[in-house]
Amino acid sequence: MAVEDVDGIYAHFGGSSAHLIKLHQCAHLASPPPFSIRIPSPSSMAGFLYALRRIYLSLYNWTVFIGWFQVLYFAVKALREGGPTTVYDAVEKPLQLAQTAAVLEILHGIVGLVRSPVSATLPQIGSRLFLVWGILWSIPETRTHVLVSSLVISWSITEIIRYSFFGMKEALGFAPSWLLWLRYSTFLLLYPTGITSEVGLIYVALPFIKASEKYCIRMPNKWNFTFDYFYASIIALAIYVPGMFLVLLIIQVNKDCLPNCFNHISSGSPHMYGYMLGQRKKALSKSKTA
Amino acid sequence: MKVTLVSRSGREVIKGGIELADGATVSDLQEAIHGRIKKYYPSRQRLTLPLQAGSQGKPIVLVPKSKLADYCDGNANNLTVLFKDLGIQVSYSTLFFWEYLGPLIIYPICYYFPVYKYFGYEGERVVYPVQTYALYYWCFHYFKRIMETFFIHRFSHATSPLSNVFRNCAYYWTFGTYIAYHVNHPLYTPVGDLQMKIGFTFGLICQISNLYCHLILRNLRSPSGNGGYQIPGGFLFNIVTCANYTTEIYQWLGFNIATQTIAGYVFLIVASLIMTNWALAKHRRLKKLFDGKEGRPRYPRRWVILPPFI
């Protein structure tokens, strides 16, 4: 099975296949005991779990891929038929499903199924969920804004490329070089458009958040607790751009799984943009010499 | 002997290396580097032996008091040292002073000045006794911390990177503001009298215990400040490795029992997590250092930070 990593991103994947080769070598050594109960040996158990992991991750990645494909399809269809104000209603269900499913990726990181640092994926997925549920779903006045179109198109194209990339890696053991090229090139446009749309929509939502008093907890109460959704959204806005710097810093600390981390980055700051440009150069030149 | 100084990318930091006497110490090397490149004062230098290609494990850090010759394994006349710039350094006292100053100033501002007017709460506000006692408790706590920083603590490292000042100040000042805002709020709801008394009394006992723990820790380290490790003992240290963190956590618990704010409890949880991380590292370090071999004492079985949980 070809597991020559085109870009070294799935380094741990290569390790797993080496294990599989070793497994194959051991398989013919184990002879079944005289009675019919066969107790699985540690190495065959590990091989079984390995296969299970791969099947699960293939299913996961391709399922979510289909979700995002639907988002893109319905978005483009709605744009052509009804215009930007109709996009949200057309994509709402697949968008909510596909984006919320990404919470599983945090779980994957925690249990060690994939090698991404939770500290990097958490703020990324957090910001996505904030947009999908906290802004678009909670504040209906934002749904007809033109930025919704740019948002869902930026997100869906990025995610389609990303999930198909990992779907292929898990299912087939490799990903074609054109897909790798797409991964490292489309961000050049999609990062700026995505982040602009996110920041813009939060900004557009602010007056409506303030007026609706939604999700606010006021004092007095027994636990002396307050929460003001308006101020929380402003703080979210304020840490958005430097927040991306922070995520980048966390990624730098977890250097050994650096390439894995960009799996989950779909919005960025100027600094990150520059960093990805560097990564792109490295990855694409590496694939040329491989 | 000649010392070749290289950065991790392989570039020579000082062209041509540095010539030193054969009996020179690492400290002499640090002074020489500082002499050649003004901005690299010794506390900013991290000097390690280059790792052999392909070998794992932690690099060997050059200790200031040791002789350079101790690090040469073959060639006694040549030594290659890896240099890393740790960035601008500040003394730990400076760092602690600034991070504690914020809460010490912000909290009384919320108590004494009409800041809530700017949040839309006009008019006179009623101040409950618990809010006044909370002010005294809080200010005593941070004043104590500042005093301990200057007169009690003996630090294992002389300095800390400048970036930590911003990070730590953000942490303390933000949480300080968050808690001060809620406890001194015009619409604050106090707890019952008994609960308040239990909270503050328990908290005070823990603060005093915490002070005693710091005194014990101070006496473990010699004034010459070489930051060596000893097995802590006496008072609560007989049963828990990081008794100082234990008392600190419980003291915040006392404050929260008395003042009852979500803000205070969030701070308690975050602070406990941070301290537990430190405590686990320290406990592990002590157990590894005092393994009972080669005449070293064996680290006794103890709780790490919060009996009976961990």
3D architecture notes:
Chain A: It catalyses: a very-long-chain (3R)-3-hydroxyacyl-CoA = a very-long-chain (2E)-enoyl-CoA + H2O. Chain A: Belongs to the very long-chain fatty acids dehydratase HACD family. Chain A: It is found in: Endoplasmic reticulum membrane; Membrane. Chain A: Its EC number is 4.2.1.134. The complex is a heterodimer of chains A (290) and B (310). Chain A is an all-alpha fold and 290 residues long. Chain A has helices at residues 11-27, 42-81, 87-101, 103-111, 118-137, 146-172, 177-185, 187-212, 229-253, 258-261, 270-289. Chain A has one domain (49-281). Chain A has eleven helices and no strands. In chain B, 48% of the residues lie in helices and 8% in strands. Chain B is built from seven helices and six strands. Chain B has helices at residues 26-36, 92-112, 129-151, 162-183, 193-220, 243-259, 262-289, and strands at 2-6, 18-19, 45-48, 78-85, 89-91, 159-161. In chain B, strands 2-1-4-3 form a four-stranded mixed sheet, with helices on one face. In chain B, strands 5-6 form a two-stranded antiparallel sheet. The termini of chain B are far apart. The model of chain B has no long low-confidence stretch (mean pLDDT 91). The A-B interface holds A 219-226 and B 182-183, 185, 187-189, 259-263.
Topology:
The complex is a heterodimer of chains A (290) and B (310).
Chain A: H1 11-27, H2 42-81, H3 87-101, H4 103-111, H5 118-137, H6 146-172, H7 177-185, H8 187-212, H9 229-253, H10 258-261, H11 270-289
Chain B: E1 2-6, E2 18-19, H1 26-36, E3 45-48, E4 78-85, E5 89-91, H2 92-112, H3 129-151, E6 159-161, H4 162-183, H5 193-220, H6 243-259, H7 262-289
Parallel strand pairs in B: 1-4
Antiparallel strand pairs in B: 1-2, 3-4, 5-6
Main location (chain B): membrane
InterPro entries (chain B): 3-oxo-5_a-steroid_4-DH_C, SRD5A/TECR
Membrane topology (chain B): Multi-pass membrane protein
